[in-house]
Predict the structure of Type-4 uracil-DNA glycosylase.
Amino acid sequence: MQTHDAAQRQLESLLEFYQASGFDCFLEEEAIDRFALSAELLAAQVAARQAGAHSPGIAGSGPTSKPTQSGRSAIPGAGQGTMQTQGVDTTAAKSSAPNAPVAGGAFADAVIPDRDAINSAHEVARSAKTLDELQASLAAFTGCNLRLTAKNLVFSDGNPKARVMLIGEAPGRDDDIKGLPFVGPSGPVLDKMLEAIGLDRSSVYIANVVPWRPPGNRTPTPQEAEICKPFIVRQIELVAPEYLVFLGAASTKSLLGVQDGIRRMRGRWMTYSSGQRQVPCLATYHPDYLLNTPIEKRLSWRDFLVLRDKLKSVVDL
């Protein structure tokens, strides 16, 4: 009996550890051996290189092909880490088509987040003429690996004809489940902030820089944010809001291209260039941050008063 109780406590401790680490679901029935997958991919790359030496019709292969500049190739796994191998030329193994998939079990549809993926995102985003087209194009876009672990695309919420557009960083767990931004614990905080200045979700438009939830609510990588950026840029152009509100440092830095901290940027009007338009924008703290640091709510309250005064002064004119 004591042995059973000890095992139960160990299991509960393990689950608590997983929850605290951000793991909230299992992606596979069995654990995946990433080392074995990496070894298989390396073997495939070597075989492709050897086969290319006898097939002059394959681009980038043959007796005269050169190793990569760094002499190393990165083998993507399921997470952010990579395994480095020495002296392997991956030119023949990589497809010339943009967004070429990377071999690897459950992540067989993963792509290399390179310049081709970013260029593809720009082309797809620019081709959208309406918000509906943009959402459909984003749902079909295969250039961002976050789509492989997310349950839903989180495109937007609110009124696309609103005067104010609010932009966060990325969806959370509840957002991912429901397919809407800011519906988790931070949602009521944002709703109360809006209500305090006479607004609600029907009178604003809400989106994120990254429309898919990163696993475990981790911060999106710079590559993931850069690949997704063309879509939020096009979304802003199509909504054409009078004012932008950046919720948190991540969305502010991504869209304004600045490196200042949120404490230096919040509460003052800046300018965002959207096509031929110059849009007044305001930065404030992210609602998630306010949940953990409630003393800063007073500063966000001041920021929203600044927004209220701007909206009221334009109406009065």
About this structure: Residues 116-316 form a domain with the Uracil-DNA Glycosylase, subunit E fold (CATH 3.40.470.10). Residues 57-98 have pLDDT under 50 and may be disordered. The longest helix spans residues 34-53. Residues 62 and 144 are 31 Å apart (CA to CA).
